[in-house]
Each structure stands twice: as structure tokens, then as C-alpha cells.
């Protein structure tokens, strides 16, 4: 049978939200459904890649032929990603919490005590940026997603440069996208912008996986 184009490649995908504890019963998180990240993992596996999916808590089933590692916090997600290296490809789709509570209370915070508010926050690692600058283990192709509400292209181009990834898929979330079935993105590289039409998250994932396959095909034939 015909060899799948990403056979022999290892892909690392992050997906879902992260959850940052405040106390034993409370946390900071976001509305990420994990749909887009799981679709990317599935599409890459369908093209033959060995896929490690580092996932925050979501209610989705693991796609076939995908190795899933469950995490809660951004710090755990970063550790799991680094442990999964080396990888040829990294696609960061997770909605990582930018902040985490500085102190996690071991007992439940009570009403009427001064310990509840304010909650001091510290910055979480930027997993995408860190993967781009990890040195010898750096995947040869690193891809990010960016949700923007305004000046989408300008902000996304700046973000791609700042993070240091080859490709960034930017979408306009001013109308909301979390948990929706479809997505519309601009595909941004160092010197090109492609406007992809609105399509299902599954179709978008497959289009991205095909792009990734042609990236490696070109690299191999050069
Ligand atoms: O900076 P911003 O959150 O808009 O960037 C989004 C991209 O960066 C996504 O690909 C997301 O997975 C990644 N990211 C990350 N770690 C963070 C924040 C964002 O990997 N702490």
C-alpha cells in the first residue's frame, strides 16, 4: 500500500485548557473545548505521524493511534511536552492560562477571611515560545494558533515573530469560536498570508496536516 506522508515523523500537539488551582476546590481556567487540538492530533495520525497529545481536561475521546498525556496546569503541560521530545513537529493548540495563583491554599478558602482576596497571580511559562527556543531538541516545524479580537493580521504577524514559530494560524474570536464546530483562520508564515475559508475544525486540521506533510516532502527533496 501507499506510504502515508508523515510516516516516521513524531508530532507533539497540545490541546484543551489548563487548570490552575486556587485551593482544593477552586481553579482558574478557560472555555477551550479541545476540539481543534484533538482534530489536529487525529489528522496528523491519519497521515502516518506518531502523535503525542498533551491535553488539559476535556471531555473528548482520544483519536485512534494517538498517545495522550493528561495534565492540569501549564507547568505540567510544559514538562510533559519537554519529556515528549524529540519531535519533528510541534503544534500548540492549547489555551494555556497565562497566569496562575502564586500560592495554592491547602485548605478551602473561607468566606469572611482575609485569605480569600486578592489572589496574587504569577505568569505561566509560554510553552510555544519555549519550544521554539529549546536548542538542539527544537522540532524543525513549530506551529501556533492565535485568537485575536482586533487587528487580527497585524497582531498575529507580530505574535509569530515574537514566539519564534514557523507558522501561526490566526482567527478572529470577536464573534466567539470556543466549542464551535467551524473555524476560519489566516495561515501566516514569515513571508506569506493565506486566508483559509470557513471550514469545520476537522477539515482545517486536515488542511494543516497536509501543509505539514508538504513541508517535510519539500525538505526531503531539496
Ligand atoms: O500569546 P497567545 O496566548 O495569544 O498565543 C497563543 C499560542 O501560544 C497558542 O498556540 C497557544 O497554544 C500558545 N501558548 C502556549 N503557552 C502559553 C500561552 C500560549 O503554548 N502560556
TrEMBL record:
Binds 1 FMN per subunit. Its EC number is 4.1.1.36, 6.3.2.5. The keyword tRNA processing does not apply. Keywords: Decarboxylase, Flavoprotein, FMN, Ligase, Lyase, Magnesium, Metal-binding, Multifunctional enzyme. Pathway: Cofactor biosynthesis; coenzyme A biosynthesis; CoA from (R)-pantothenate: step 2/5; Cofactor biosynthesis; coenzyme A biosynthesis; CoA from (R)-pantothenate: step 3/5. Its cofactor is FMN; Mg(2+). Residues 6-214 form the DNA/pantothenate metabolism flavoprotein C-terminal domain. Residues 11-222 are annotated as: Phosphopantothenate--cysteine ligase. CTP binds at residues 98, 108, 125-128, 145, 159, 163. It catalyses: (R)-4'-phosphopantothenate + L-cysteine + CTP = N-[(R)-4-phosphopantothenoyl]-L-cysteine + CMP + diphosphate + H(+); N-[(R)-4-phosphopantothenoyl]-L-cysteine + H(+) = (R)-4'-phosphopantetheine + CO2. Catalyzes two steps in the biosynthesis of coenzyme A. In the first step cysteine is conjugated to 4'-phosphopantothenate to form 4-phosphopantothenoylcysteine, in the latter compound is decarboxylated to form 4'-phosphopantotheine. In the C-terminal section; belongs to the PPC synthetase family. In the N-terminal section; belongs to the HFCD (homo-oligomeric flavin containing Cys decarboxylase) superfamily. This is Coenzyme A biosynthesis bifunctional protein CoaBC. It comes from Saccharibacter floricola DSM 15669. The gene is coaBC.
Amino acid at each position: 500500500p501507499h506510504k502515508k506522508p508523515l510516516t516516521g515523523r513524531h508530532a507533539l500537539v497540545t490541546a484543551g485548557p489548563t487548570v490552575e488551582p486556587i485551593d482544593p476546590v477552586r481553579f482558574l481556567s478557560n472555555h477551550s473545548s479541545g476540539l481543534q487540538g484533538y482534530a489536529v492530533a487525529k489528522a496528523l495520525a491519519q497521515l502516518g505521524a506518531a502523535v503525542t497529545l498533551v491535553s488539559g481536561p476535556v471531555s473528548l475521546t482520544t483519536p485512534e493511534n494517538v498517545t495522550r498525556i493528561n495534565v492540569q496546569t501549564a507547568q505540567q503541560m510544559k514538562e510533559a511536552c519537554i519529556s515528549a521530545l524529540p519531535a519533528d513537529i510541534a503544534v500548540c493548540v492549547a489555551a494555556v492560562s497565562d497566569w496562575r495563583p502564586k500560592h495554592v491554599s491547602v485548605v478551602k478558602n473561607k468566606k469572611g477571611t482575609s485569605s480569600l482576596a486578592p489572589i496574587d497571580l504569577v505568569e505561566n511559562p509560554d510553552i510555544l515560545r519555549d519550544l521554539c527556543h529549546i536548542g538542539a531538541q527544537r522540532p524543525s516545524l513549530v506551529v501556533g494558533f492565535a485568537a485575536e479580537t482586533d487587528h487580527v493580521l497585524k497582531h498575529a504577524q507580530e505574535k509569530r515573530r515574537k514566539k519564534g514559530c514557523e507558522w501561526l494560524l490566526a482567527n478572529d474570536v470577536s464573534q466567539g469560536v470556543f466549542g464551535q464546530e467551524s473555524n476560519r483562520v489566516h495561515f501566516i508564515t514569515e513571508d506569506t498570508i493565506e486566508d483559509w475559508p470557513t471550514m469545520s475544525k476537522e477539515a482545517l486540521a486536515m488542511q494543516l496536516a497536509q501543509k505539514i506533510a508538504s513541508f517535510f516532502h519539500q525538505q526531503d527533496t531539496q
